[in-house]
Design goal:
Jelly Rolls, 7-stranded antiparallel β-sheet, 6-stranded antiparallel β-sheet
Length: 479
């Protein structure tokens, strides 16, 4: 405390001397910080695209790094094909470049048209509802999106984001926002969600098929994007296949002359000081009650035979059964029963996916009491569902290959309103049952819709297993 008082006295003394002499300046000190500046950070998203059509590089939908619209001299399109045929297939790898700062990344897809144009005579044989907004092409062109490593190939282990027809978005004018990297999502590193680091390049694979799309991922080659130093040969569908297949043989003439258009956009948003950002997503409350008829899960009728399997009349469990139309009606001098049966198993070859029973779609002519073996018994099962035109629905089912059977025995297609919307298989059966959960988005066009699953493998009474089928109503709203 004493030292403080002394210091104060000295200051007063110095001031007194200056006043007495009337000579000098006041004591002073100046510290200046010059050129203070705020400069806003920048986020710049640029995109390039490499496109293949039927396995050949397509320059019309390929471009180098650019803006998609504003700032670009060219309106770039991810698909622009005017004469596609059933079975046509395409693959694009979209390269997303986020410059300077860390950023969240979102995508948006909007269906802008799905039209019947000027129907010709073959189309009118299969399609009597024509006009603007009444086309079938959006239901028949299936898309596949995945987190790619830049080589234009769907490889084992790469994260599939979405699969299905573009009509699953909803009626014309509907759109869906897809989180690519936000506070709760990162499609490239699903276990560590969050933004992309600045000056980062990421890739999205986009496949399309005019028909039924099937996933056939190929092995990783370790080379990454085309042009990577040390890469041997080349990459892309022209060299390694696209990693998925396309089957247009099940389409009819209803899509002739039809057209669809869609908008695809991407948006980057700063992540710093924005920790809880999420891409505007669809909120889809799912009706928890299965809208299929009671018993659709194959738990009834109950299998009571000692063999742990049996056949039941068409209509059992709410499922109508039909024979596949292209298989023989006689076998070993015996005629096929006029009405097919539902073949249910209760653990005879392994556990079910849900409950304790499942169905085999390649059924049987006379059940476990009969003497026939290997007869052509492929069936399809269906229900007529009350639906709302324009409403989206979500189909779930479990598929398994019959153990110890070749791939051609295990092949299933799913139809919605007569259109193929999904296939499972062909898949070879291993030594035990392995269930695979399948999910398909569909849209209703009528007030009553036929929902069908059918065996399309070898017709020999040995075939695919199906279980736990559900159809949920989707009420999707962008927020």
């Amino acid at each position: 405390m004493k030292r403080i008082f002394i210091s104060a006295a000295l200051i007063l003394a110095a001031g007194g001397i200056a006043a007495a002499g009337s000579t000098g300046a006041f004591f002073s000190d100046s510290e200046t910080s010059s050129g203070n500046t705020f400069t806003a950070g920048a986020i710049d998203l640029k995109i390039d695209n490499t496109s293949y059509y039927n396995g050949v590089l397509n320059l019309g939908t390929t471009w180098t790094l650019d803006e998609l619209n504003n700032g670009s001299t060219t309106l770039h399109k991810f698909f622009d094909f005017s004469d596609i045929k059933p079975g046509d297939i395409g693959e694009d790898t979209i390269s997303l470049h986020v410059n300077t700062n860390d950023a969240y990344l979102c995508a948006n897809v909007k269906l802008t048209s799905n039209d019947d144009n000027t129907p010709n005579e073959p189309e009118l044989l299969d399609d009597t509802t024509t006009g603007v907004g009444l086309g079938e092409l959006a239901q028949a062109v299936n898309f596949l999106w995945w987190a790619d490593d830049g080589d234009n190939v769907l490889e084992a282990g790469e994260n599939v984001i979405s699969q299905g027809p573009i009509s699953a978005i909803g009626p014309v004018g509907s759109s869906v926002n897809v989180p690519l990297a936000d506070s709760s999502t990162n499609i490239w590193t699903p276990l560590t969600p969050g933004p992309l680091a600045g000056n980062t390049t990421k890739y999205i694979g986009k496949g399309w098929c005019f028909g039924t799309i099937g996933l056939t991922p190929v092995a990783q080659d370790g080379f990454g994007p085309v042009g990577t130093p040390g890469q041997q040969g080349s990459n892309g569908p022209d060299f390694r296949t696209a990693g998925f297949t396309c089957n247009g043989s099940l389409l009819n003439n209803s899509t002739q002359t039809d057209s669809l258009t869609a908008d695809v956009s991407f948006e980057a948003t700063q992540s710093r000081n924005n920790p809880n950002f999420t891409c505007a997503t669809r909120t889809c409350p799912i009706v928890t009650t299965n809208i299929l008829l009671p018993g659709a899960g194959f738990e009834t009728p109950e299998v009571t035979s000692g063999e742990q399997w049996d056949i039941f009349p068409s209509g059992s469990g709410g499922w109508n059964v039909e024979w596949r139309s292209d298989v023989p009606t006689t076998f070993n001098s015996q005629n096929r029963p006029e009405v097919p049966s539902l073949e249910l198993h209760e653990g005879v070859l392994g556990p079910s996916a849900d409950g304790d029973q499942y169905i085999e779609l390649d059924s049987d002519w006379n059940g476990h009491v009969g003497s026939l073996d290997g007869e052509p018994a492929s069936t399809k099962i269906y229900q007529m569902i009350n639906t709302v035109p324009g409403q989206s629905y979500e189909i779930h089912y479990a598929f398994a290959a019959r153990p110890n059977t070749p791939a051609n025995d295990n092949n299933v297609e799913v139809r919605w309103g007569g259109n193929v919307v999904d296939t499972a298989g062909p898949t070879a059966g291993t030594s035990s049952i392995s269930w695979l959960e399948r999910t398909v988005m569909v849209v209703a066009t009528t007030t009553s819709t036929r929902f069908e699953l059918g065996d399309i493998g070898t017709a020999n009474s040995l075939g695919s297993f199906i279980d736990n089928i559900r159809v949920f109503t989707q009420s999707c709203v962008l927020n």
